[in-house]
Design brief:
mainly alpha, about 325 residues
């Protein structure tokens, strides 16, 4: 009798999770600014995978998919379902088997990059009839039209042509088709890494609150770039410059991608170092610390200061040095 009641309870919990997953899929399609929904989207399936087994997990995915294709269009339902199924499977398997979160984040990042490549090369062509190059051309034309409207507003307000060109020309160049083509790879990689880290952190926090055993999350204050990463980054930049100087594709793209990713990684490492210092040395609370970081990131000088600190920390490793100093005492 007790086993029967337990099975009924399990079925009820799985059913609730299936309904929640279907609702999240629906909201992710129709609700504007659905970034938060995208992060919590895999959680019901991940919870079922970790707490129960693969049979219940497959059941919740199938039920949510059937409800989704009835409530939203087929193309959106299929694309969202595939992404949710893959992400929740990886998260559930890695968390249930206590795999290190760094490996989990790396796998999800790779999956997101592959999905982005498939989306830009295949799905866009299937759903819109446009190829990747045509889509970028249309996006560039849209931005250029907006920039021209801004230019006319400046002219009507009495600014000289030279003043306008000083402001507008860099923007016009940044949103050209070639510039966008060079920016897309770095933006895809950065977005994939950030999504994977945040998704993993949210999943672990949620499951911990649900009283399930989970592996420890990588602490933000421990994020550090090894000096070999800097060396490989410099090599990549040099390769990009050499290829671009001989007009070899994709030299410019390699240079831009490595430069943006490198600066972004060093920025995160620099912020991590500062947060570590503010937390351990000055015992500043999280809210004030967050406010300090946001304010300092607004100004380019301090933002590049974080990049410099991240680069310096790659060779010095201040946190390890501080730990050694404490141990010696």
């Amino acid at each position: 009798m007790q086993e029967k009641n337990l099975n009924i309870k399990n079925f009820m919990q799985v059913g609730i999770c299936a309904v929640a997953l279907a609702i999240f899929i629906y909201l992710s399609t129709y609700v504007p600014l659905n970034l938060l929904i995208n992060f919590i989207l895999p959680l019901p399936a991940v919870y079922v995978y970790v707490k129960y087994d693969l049979k219940y997990f497959c059941a919740i995915l199938l039920a949510a998919f059937i409800v989704s294709i009835v409530s939203i269009d087929m193309a959106s339902a299929v694309s969202i379902f595939i992404m949710v199924a893959i992400i929740s499977t990886i998260l559930g398997y890695c968390i249930k088997n206590k795999i290190k979160t760094g490996i989990t984040i790396a796998i999800i990042t790779g999956i997101c990059i592959v999905f982005a490549i498939v989306y830009f090369t295949i799905l866009i062509k299937v759903f819109t009839g446009m190829d990747y190059s045509t889509l970028l051309g249309n996006v560039s034309k849209m931005f250029q039209g907006t920039i021209n409207d801004v230019k006319n507003i400046y002219l009507n307000n009495g600014m000289t042509q030279s003043q306008i060109n000083t402001i507008i020309d860099p923007l016009s160049e940044a949103f050209s088709k070639e510039s966008l083509k060079s920016l897309i790879p770095s933006l895809v990689i950065i977005n994939s890494v950030l999504y994977s880290y945040i998704e993993c952190a949210i999943a672990i926090y949620f499951l911990k609150r649900m009283k399930l055993e989970v592996p420890s999350m990588i602490q933000f204050t421990k994020i550090h770039m090894h000096n070999l990463g800097v060396a490989f980054g410099i090599i990549g930049i040099c390769i990009g410059i050499i290829m671009d100087s001989f007009n070899i594709w994709p030299g410019g793209m390699i240079y831009t991608t490595v430069m943006i990713i490198g600066e972004g990684a060093l920025l995160i490492c620099g912020i991590s170092l500062v947060v570590n210092i503010l937390k351990d040395k000055f015992h500043i609370n999280s809210a004030l610390m967050f406010l300090i970081i946001i304010i300092t990131l607004i100004f380019p000088a301090t933002a590049y200061g974080y990049v410099f600190l991240g680069l310096l920390d790659a060779f010095v490793d201040f946190r390890k040095a501080a730990t050694k100093g404490i141990n010696k005492k």
